Amino acid sequence: MKKYMIYIQNQPIQVSQTVYQTYWKSVEQEKYQDKKMRKGISLDAHPSDYPHPLSEIQFLRGSDPTKEIVDSILMREWIQEALRHLPNKERELIELLFFHQMTEVEVAHQWRVQHSAINKRKKRILKKLRRAWEQWDASQ
User: What is the C-alpha separation between 79 and 126, in angstroms, rounded?
Assistant: First the structure.
């Protein structure tokens, strides 16, 4: 039987496979969130959950946050509107993947479809959203 170990304060601790997998999933999610925060985007919750997006982080960076805040608010408003216009199944997929941080495999299992089907749907939806964003952005 395989032993699963995690290290806390440089001390190895034996854990169950479930705890091990959950731990590493949370580590990967944290890395993902850190990367998004460095880019000025946070997807850990629905866009409507942010009344004052990222202003503290931008202030700490020493830049004038006004333009970034306005851009961030406009982007979140656009995302909310774009999500409202998606068909229910497409909106649900995007929310599960990006706002609830489920993996494609987890969604595929929950929906009882192949992982490749979820991946293709996600790519198709993101392509649709990207085209809509480019059209909206060009009109501003």
Answer: 12
